[in-house]
Specification:
Length: 404
């Protein structure tokens, strides 16, 4: 439920519920904090006349404003049309696919230029980050869900893209202002740029590093800072912190500077979690990808040691215990792909069921919202039991993130 108010009554400090335009496109996802007047002006330009706000999280309309408003603009409680939200998600994910591919190409071009000693365009990277942020602002799930698709052989490039997306999305979840979200995205896309000065024989080694090889690899954050300086790249302090500090750890056990606690930039701590999560959930020559659930559980074990507990909790809340793109088994025995995480109910996502309780592939997949299902008298049995590897089932998760 939300409080419906006139767009003219919206002010900085309010928390918006989902904002959809007349075509059902999601412009802002729920729990978006209004941090700048520019956000309000953009909504007005899109023809938005009313929005719903969460008065428990943010400020309310001053009483004098509400009293002065004509009757037709009076506030009222409304419930969002779930069908519109669903349509908005699937519209955005098609757009997100284009952004994912386009940004991958920008990252590859940028890092390849660095590899051969050429200059790179920081403006191109920022433009790519802008598209990521705009997509996240429209729908926080769509682009993040594509991070579960590991379709490229060029690991370093794809990994850089995914860290950029995950850090931007987490910054949005943590209510960073829009410009800081953008700069965090730039830092995420460039976080491993220093690896382009690590010999490829070490960078692409399939097995465990020798001590001397690891010492060389650990230099890449410093190489990244040097590259930014040499190119006179206009990258913000947030971006530079991510490039130089994403391997620092909360307890001081990281590298290259062995920074500890609050000495590490918050955005760098965020990128460290995103970096590890994407690495663990990706197939490598020396190990298979972990399920998102296992990766999150492992990261959580490092709370207050390697990672900030607050950041890990926000990251987990945002992705869900079973993130979008997870292949899961329900307590009913059914198997399916998580297509949406319900905010505030991370244990009860929306799932496309692909296999029945007897293990047979369904000819027609069905969509089940576990949170809604659990409200039914017999719905308690509709719970996720465990995250499962989709490979033995010949499931390509990507096929179920754009449609069902």
């Amino acid at each position: 439920m939300g409080k419906r108010i006139s767009i003219d009554d919206v002010s900085v400090g309010m928390f918006l519920e989902d904002v959809l335009d007349e075509r059902g496109r999601l412009l802002y996802t729920e729990n978006t904090k209004v941090t700048a007047v520019l956000q309000i002006e953009r909504l007005k330009q899109r023809g938005i006349r009313h929005v719903c706000i969460n008065t428990e999280k943010g400020i309310d309309v001053p009483k004098q404003n509400a009293q002065a408003r004509p009757p037709e603009d009076a506030t009222e409680d409304v419930t969002f049309d779930d069908a519109l939200r669903e349509q908005a998600y699937y519209r955005e994910i098609e757009h997100a696919r284009e952004i994912h591919q386009k940004t991958f190409e920008t990252v590859r071009e940028t890092l390849q230029s660095i590899r051969i000693g050429k200059s790179f365009s920081a403006q191109n990277v920022e433009r790519a980050a802008e598209e990521i942020v705009e997509s996240i602002m429209r729908n926080a799930d769509a682009l993040v869900s594509l991070c579960q698709i590991k379709g490229h052989d060029e690991y370093t490039f794809e990994h850089s893209l995914h860290v950029g997306i995950l850090v931007s999305s987490l910054a949005h979840e943590m209510h960073f202002c829009e410009d800081d979200i953008l700069q965090a995205g730039v830092g995420g896309l460039l976080h491993d740029m220093g690896k382009m000065r690590v010999p490829e024989s070490i960078l692409n080694k399939p097995g465990k590093y020798e001590p001397w090889e690891f010492a060389v690899m650990k230099k890449h954050p410093e190489h990244g800072l040097a590259i930014l300086k040499e190119n006179k790249a206009h990258v913000s302090p947030i971006g530079k912190a991510i490039v130089s500090q994403h391997h620092e750890r909360y307890d001081g056990s990281g590298y290259p500077f062995k920074l500890k606690g609050e000495a590490i930039h918050e955005a760098a701590l965020m990128s460290g979690v995103a970096d590890v999560y994407d690495a663990l959930t990706t197939d490598r020559v020396y190990r298979e990808a972990w399920t998102p659930q296992k990766a999150l559980a492992t990261i959580f074990q490092g709370c207050d040691k390697e990672y900030s507990r607050m950041i890990v909790e926000r990251f987990t809340k945002h992705l869900g215990i079973y993130p979008v793109g997870s292949f899961v088994r329900l307590t009913t025995g059914e198997l399916g792909v998580v297509t949406r995480v319900n905010s505030g109910h991370i244990m009860a996502p929306e799932v496309v069921i692909l296999f029945g309780s007897e293990g047979k592939r369904l000819t027609k997949p069905s969509l089940v919202d576990l949170f809604q299902k659990q409200k039914d008298p017999d719905g308690v049995r509709y719970q996720v039991e465990i995250s499962v590897d989709p490979k033995p089932y010949n499931i390509r998760v990507a096929d179920y993130l754009a449609k069902h």
